[in-house]
Design goal:
Strand order of the largest sheet of chain A: 2-3-4-8
Order of helices and strands of chain A: EEEEEEEEEE
Number of domains of chain B: 7
Strand content of chain B: 15-25%
Number of strands of chain A: 10
Strand order of the largest sheet of chain B: 5-2-1-9-21
Structural class of chain B: alpha/beta
Oligomer: heterodimer
CATH architecture of the largest domain in chain B: 3-Layer(bba) Sandwich
Radius of gyration of chain B: 31 Å
Largest interface: A-B, 39 and 29 residues
CATH class of the largest domain in chain B: Alpha Beta
Shape of chain A: globular
Distance between the termini of chain B: 50 Å
Helix content of chain A: under 10%
CATH superfamily of the largest domain in chain B: FAD/NAD(P)-binding domain
Number of helices of chain B: 26
Distance between the termini of chain A: 19 Å
Radius of gyration of chain A: 13 Å
Largest sheet of chain A: 4 strands, antiparallel
CATH superfamily of one domain in chain A: Rieske [2Fe-2S] iron-sulphur domain
CATH class of one domain in chain A: Mainly Beta
Number of helices of chain A: 0
Chain lengths: ~120, ~800
């Protein structure tokens, strides 16, 4: 169901920071939290399309740089009372290398991240 | 295993503590609640509107029974706790239920004081405290005709008004000659009385009740002078008495109330107490605002989140009688050294009085026009120096902000009138959200509606709406916490950084018990600024705690591209720079080139990955970052001065360039703008800048604290100087004082309004030694700050990861 892509090493992402993976269906933001967990969300805030990769990471959350919406990194859900969701993608860490899972079924349909 | 928390008292204070606790530490305690009343938890202060028929019981419920069930809180409604065994840590109820506790919270509230006179136990004699009392009153209004309310205080008048609305003929008996003597001065009290009499209330002032007459039911009231008046209902509202019997019986130390310390613990540290049953630093409170503050501190302590301290409250009150506007706060009767500022307009029925001591508000009484109550209360709590606007302070905040709207009241606005211009929120949406979602605080309103969540200039209006809709002044603690991660205010955090020599975020989080291990988007940038401004040679600038603009040294735009503004010293440029800018715009296909308000050129729509290349080209032509993106020195705007202008008195352009060369690169609490005008015609608009110089024939006028943005503010004249060298020294000293004492995201204009121009003068103009010390600290810090961030990044050696994608796939 997922195509797994090797995207780099854990240390390529600064602690409490984010990097972008460019895909044919739009950018994916990959975040690293203080406890060295890595999460991936589509790099578009559900509010006004702000680039989440440019935000501030705190706990397991990201604050969008444009209007301070806060999203859960694990689910992509906006923190209440805001309502909205950014597509999230699975990330695996194996032998120090990061793998990003992109959904190959959805990417063929019209509901691709870029078209959503 | 979870610890057990038992709460005795299902009222507002106790349940607010539980709610706060569930928010910050939802899994810490098994919670059991005992409440003597057979309901969920309701908003007691709204009983008056219920009695007046303006609200229903359902509308004032805060938490219904389902709420408790959903959160796993055990509620024993209608079960009165009668005994506490502290040695065994048990609470017993009258019905025989026993609950064990690890921590006990007493929130037993207070009872109406019942006068010790004959007949006080007759049927139809009640207090005004709970839903049952309201039901008794409503029933009495069905059958009886005459009601007597004993007590002309806040509660008594609200009860009297409600009963009158229910069709009864109401007489208010007050032992003194002024109504609400704890909140009002005699003038306001008389205006209130006249207005209530007009509505049909009767008053017997200075009357002493001797006995209540009747067989089973009350039928009349007799006074000491022998006068009798008929009464089918008597409501006693002569004061409240903290309910301390339970605590006393358990051997917990009580005076008038249960004595607690600043963390709301009684002499038995396992036993906490909040609300009206409490005596803190000799004070008992009967108003709602202090309860909120106590609840917050208590919940924090129970959750072991550091030691927030409750340090007492300044309270304000508002009478909830529809059509009568009355507001009172602080000490309104003055005292030694106090002055009164009074506005009295009998024709409009308006009376306003501020009690002021050394230009700081001590108390306020407003009658007829209370729209500025929250503003005066804010001035009072924050101890603001009102010297600068003392002449107009009584005309209100709206008058200050915009003299074109001096006849302005938020409640007279239409529902579709826009309150928040940033987020397009109209008045109706805000009042609806407050009512439907039961919002109590400014933060809640911001979260749900976004009103005042952006630039904040409509905060006052939103606070007024909140006050008017909720029926109480939405209060904020005297010292606002920095953010939800801490109880500490900006000033306290800063003092800790300095005093404990904290040089990193991690050490701040540890020393001050931060609730979130890595803070949030609101506190991290502030802390990072405090660190690098306090310890410029030691603290490391944490890039991940910078807002994106300061992290990548350009301004993010709505589409995720960036804008680039190179520095143009004093607004000067030359053909070489202009060619380089034109070449860059061509080469990188930059869609928009614009002249800014600060005399520079803005390149808009640059792709992030192009930024280092754009900077390299600009650097090659001798240009550096203009910091147009930073909480830092922005521009120094100038006019052409003596070089060209026939009116110029000094070399304003040259001085502007010198000031900019000296101060560029410095980080400040918020953006910092300067200007130098060559003569009093002031073409560089120096009098709306943070630091402005107006040249005159005999020297230089120094102006500070101006702002041309959200709220326009002309500068204050700091002093007049004779030489350029002095101007430079004063400039450094002023910036450094602001850097050290301004709060993060506080511009110089509100900072000066907060601390007062007199203070700034005393530190800079009148204290030469301190001025030189400030100046030296500023220049020391500049050694670490004046490194062009563009050159560093164009070289590829700093933060290269910011500008490159991690990977391309597919």
């Amino acid at each position: 169901m997922y195509d797994w892509h090797e995207i780099g090493a854990l240390n390529d992402i600064p602690l409490l920071g984010s990097r972008v993976v460019q895909t044919p269906h739009g950018d994916v933001a990959v975040f690293r939290t203080a406890d060295d967990r890595v999460f991936a969300l589509r790099d578009r805030c559900p509010h006004k399309g702000g680039p989440l990769s440019q935000g501030i990471v705190h706990g397991h959350r990201i604050t969008c740089p444009l209007h301070n919406w806060v999203l859960e990194l694990e689910s992509g859900q906006a923190v209440a009372p805001d309502v909205g969701c950014a597509t999230h993608y699975p990330v695996r860490l194996e032998n120090g290398r990061l793998w990003l899972g992109l959904n190959n079924v959805v990417s063929l349909s019209t509901a691709t991240p870029a078209a959503a | 295993m979870k610890e057990k928390l038992v709460l005795v008292g299902n009222g507002m204070a106790g349940m607010r503590t539980v709610e706060e606790l569930l928010t910050i530490a939802p899994d810490k305690f098994d919670i059991t609640v005992f409440g003597a009343e057979p309901h969920g938890n309701y908003n007691r202060i709204m009983l008056s509107p219920v009695l007046a028929g303006e609200k229903t019981i359902d509308q004032i419920m805060i938490n219904d029974l389902d709420w408790y069930a959903e959160r796993g809180v055990t509620l024993h409604a209608g079960q009165e706790a009668v005994e506490i065994h502290r040695a065994r840590r048990e609470v017993h109820t009258a019905g025989g239920t026993v609950a064990l506790y690890d921590r006990l919270l007493l929130a037993t509230g207070s009872s109406p004081f019942i006068l010790p006179i004959p007949g006080n136990n007759l049927l139809g004699v009640i207090g005004f405290r709970d839903i049952k009392d309201v039901e008794t009153m409503l029933a009495a209004a069905q059958t009886g005709k005459h009601a007597v309310v004993i007590g002309g205080g806040l509660l008594g008048l609200e009860a009297a008004n409600g009963l009158m609305k229910q069709g009864m003929q109401v007489t208010v008996i007050h032992v003194l000659d002024t109504l609400m003597e704890r909140q009002l001065d005699p003038v306001a009290a008389d205006m209130l009385r006249a207005s209530l009499e007009e509505r049909g209330l009767r008053f017997l002032m200075g009357a002493q009740t001797a006995a209540l007459l009747g067989e089973e039911r009350v039928r009349a009231v007799r006074f000491k002078d022998g006068l009798e008046i008929p009464a089918d209902l008597v409501v006693m509202a002569v004061g409240i008495r903290p309910n301390i019997e339970l605590a006393k019986k358990a051997g917990i130390y009580c005076e008038r109330g249960i004595v607690v310390n600043d963390t709301m613990q009684s002499y038995d540290p396992r036993v906490y107490a909040v609300g009206e049953c409490v005596q803190h630093r000799g004070q008992c409170y009967g108003l709602v605002a202090p309860l909120w503050e106590q609840a917050k501190v208590c919940a924090n302590h129970l959750a072991r989140y550091g030691i927030g301290r409750y340090q007492g409250s300044v309270t304000s009150t508002k009478l909830k009688v529809t059509g009568i506007d009355l507001f009172s706060a602080g000490s309104f009767n003055g005292g030694p050294g106090c002055e009164e500022i009074v506005l009295r307009d009998p024709a409009r029925g308006v009376y306003k009085k501020l009690v002021v001591k050394e230009n700081r508000v001590q108390g306020a009484v407003l009658y007829g026009d209370t729209i500025d109550g929250s503003w005066y209360f804010q001035l009072l709590r924050e101890g603001t120096d009102i010297g600068a606007f003392r002449e107009t302070v009584l005309f209100g905040h709206a008058h200050m902000a915009d003299s074109g709207r001096d006849d302005f009241s938020v409640m007279t606005m239409a529902d579709d009138a826009e309150i928040c211009g940033c987020n397009g929120v109209c008045k109706g949406a805000i009042t609806k959200a407050i009512a439907e979602k039961k919002l109590f605080t400014l933060d809640e309103v911001r979260a749900h509606t976004k009103a005042s969540a952006s630039c904040g200039s409509c905060t006052g209006l939103v606070e007024q709406l909140l006050a008017a809709t909720v029926g109480t002044i939405g209060k904020t603690p005297a010292e606002k916490p920095m953010c939800k991660c801490t109880e500490n205010s900006h000033d306290r955090v800063r003092a800790a950084i300095r005093e404990q020599h904290l040089t990193s975020l991690a050490r701040i989080f540890e020393a001050l018990n931060w609730k979130n291990p890595d803070g949030c988007h609101s506190c991290r940038p502030a802390l990072n600024y405090y660190l690098i401004s306090t310890w410029p040679s030691e603290a490391k600038d944490d890039q991940q705690s910078r807002f994106i603009n300061e992290r990548v040294h350009a301004n993010i735009q709505k589409d995720g591209t960036y804008s680039v503004v190179p520095r143009m010293w004093g607004g000067l440029t030359n053909p070489k720079e202009l060619r380089a800018i034109a070449d860059v715009a061509d080469k990188f296909q930059i869609p928009t080139v614009k002249v800014t308000g600060g005399q520079r050129i803005d390149l808009l729509g640059v792709k992030k990955e192009d930024l280092p290349k754009v900077w390299a080209d600009l650097n090659a032509a001798g240009m550096v970052s203009g910091h147009a993106y930073g909480k830092s020195l922005r521009t120094v705007k100038t006019c052409v001065g003596t070089d060209w202008c026939r009116f110029g008195t000094q070399d304003s352009t040259g001085l502007g360039v010198k000031l900019e060369k000296m101060t560029w690169g410095s980080w400040t609490p918020h953006k910092f703008k300067m200007a130098v005008s060559g003569c009093p015609r002031n073409c560089a608009e120096a009098t709306i800048k943070d630091f402005g110089v107006v040249c005159v024939d005999s020297g230089y006028e120094i102006h500070v604290g101006g702002n041309g943005g959200i709220k326009i503010r002309g500068t204050d004249l700091l002093c007049k100087l004779a030489t350029e060298a002095e101007v430079k020294e004063y400039c450094c000293a002023f910036m450094q004082l602001y850097r050290e004492e301004g709060r993060y995201l506080e511009r110089t204009a509100p900072w000066i309004e907060r601390v007062g121009l007199g203070y700034i003068k005393s530190r800079i103009v009148e204290d030469e030694e301190n001025r030189q010390a400030l100046c030296a600290r500023f220049l020391e810090s500049q050694q670490y700050a004046q490194i062009d961030p563009w050159a560093e990044r164009a070289s590829g050696r700093v933060d290269a990861h910011e500008f490159q994608p991690l990977q391309r796939v597919g």
